[in-house]
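User: For a benchmark we're assembling, each entry needs the component sequences followed by a predicted structure for the full assembly. Here are entry 17's components. Please fill in the structure.
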Amino acid sequence: MEYIPNIIFVILLIAGIGYFANNVKKLIRNIKLGQKVDASDQKSERWKNVVNIALGQSKMVKRPVSGILHVVVYVGFVIINMEVLEIIIDGLFGTHRIGQEYLPATLYGFLIGAFEILAVLVLVSVAVFWIRRNVIKIKRFLSSEMKGWPKSDGNIILYFEVVLMCLFLVMNATDTVFQTANSGNVISQFIAPWFSGFEIETLHTIERIAWWLHIAGILVFLNYLYFSKHLHILLAFPNVYYGSVEPKGKFNNLDAVTAEVKLMMDPDADPYAAPPETADDEVPAKFGASDVMDLTQVQLLNAYTCTECGRCTSSCPANLTGKKLSPRKIMMDTRDRLEEVGKNIDLNKGKFVDDGKQLLGDYITNEELWACTTCNACVEECPVSINPLSIIMEMRRYLVMEQSAAPMELNNMMTNIENNGAPWPYNQMDRLNWKDEN
Amino acid sequence: MSEQLKVPTMAEMMTEGKQPEILFWVGSAGSYDDRAKKITKAFVKILNKANVDFAVLGTEESNTGDVAKRAGNEFLFQMQAVMNIEVLNAYEVKRIVTCDPHSFNCLKNEYPGLGGNYDVIHHTQYIQELISTGRLTLDGNTYKGKRVTFHDPCYLGRANSVYDAPRDVLKKTNATLIEMKRHKGTALCCGAGGAQMFKDAEPGNKEINVLRTEDAIETQPEIIATGCPYCNTMMTDGVKFKEKETEITVMDIAELIANA
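Assistant: Structure for entry 17:
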């Protein structure tokens, strides 16, 4: 009988971590639906980015208010979660505050004291975040793509953090042994008096309930991640690593196009030659992207990493002037479609069955794609190195090269370049006339 | 422009057996657009004044393909690029300067993958170099104390992190440089990039160039300085839209320096 709590704990832990691991497997499978990219170059630059941008939050603090509050929550969350280690050991072995027993009293007191202070700072920050979203109504949280689930999602995460922090503090406040030791209870000593009228037995029960709810809450939160925008707390790191290390203006040259252009320009090429033999299952390369499978694995990782903060959209010139384009929506649509494809695969025993839908058209419209000025403001803004512009470009390529669906004025411009080497209908031979004009 | 500009072509240079120190890539806008041609000529005036041994490709230059690429037409871009690279490599070009940040970005970042490797710089960087090496001197009075704000071209600034060269050069004119709220990395696009120059904007509630011009007007400038022919057009149109053309002039940095 005395091992029942340990057994329940093990079951809870295995269920919580197991379900999460299962979803992580799905997530990896979904990302792998994308095209492979070689990111083996510039390793030191990539690690530098992880240290500065992801760990160091260098881009977050460019907007100081949300940036600094975010650092508090981030640091608080990471550090307070060290406490989870103790909880897990206690839970598995039926000990109570194993750290108190084995660590020097001053060190343990210092650690828990620091956790308690951070917990309060996190509570304050989260409260400000909630006010920014729901009372001040900062514009980037109100865009059309933020209606419904994305809006609730943002708030649910804040509620989670409040509950977890409160449970941690209550757990400490009602732990009579811990309070008697009077070391590290910097905050909880002020909460303890709220419970002063209770019997010792009741206090113990409250402490146990808080303890169990705290660990259960953490496991629920862990599993909530996969269904929410909050995956960035894990994916920001790989995402920054795989983010571009090239100048932002450098767009990739399509290799499939290079092969064809080289052939066209080769005077020795036989115009009647049959295309080279390819393996039977090899589909000819598609130019650009119309669905998530055409995007790269990095672009799909980008989609899962996006936490919908909207800094991109709030700096997008098209969006600022009332156009439909929102870089954040591009990322959200990509993820939604990828999830849809993933569910399709789950339902059809591991194979994707054409559902007559695609990212282009069913999620992202031509109007959005053509509104982009390729100015890179969204790329510059993203605190975790997401590149919405690269997705827009791939879809434009599909529109132009596979569908010939460019706006008419652009077709005229391109015809001019083809015919006379300039976007306007001027004669190539007049190119140097300016030198003699007054 | 009263004085005769000296604009040698690579072909002429070659027949004389000479190799210029730098190739001036004029670009399509700089060659054909009336407003941009003035920038081209101002820059040549600077090159002549500093006795720079340069040349242009003239009728052998063709569009970089940049705008086609941003529009999604990778085929057309690569066709143009391969053609231009053939010409540039035949002349053994090593160093290129251009007044167009779009050509700058494309030549610098996207040509190497197709076999075109050159040291490419923007004209504001080259002017900075000419001044710092003492080849170009400014009298420093023309713009003394004038309120100038600089609009960062996306393909110079964010795309290639060149923020200081144009500002350094502007300071050399003794003008008072006032920054817009959105500048450098957070600068707002003029609205012309990504092939928008050649099409109407999608439905919205404002034109981007008007919003950007409002940013500039907030600084109460006498001159809006740019470093891109397309930005120049957009900002000029914006100033006209706001009916400020009597108070504010839009000038390329090359034009400012040519008169300084």
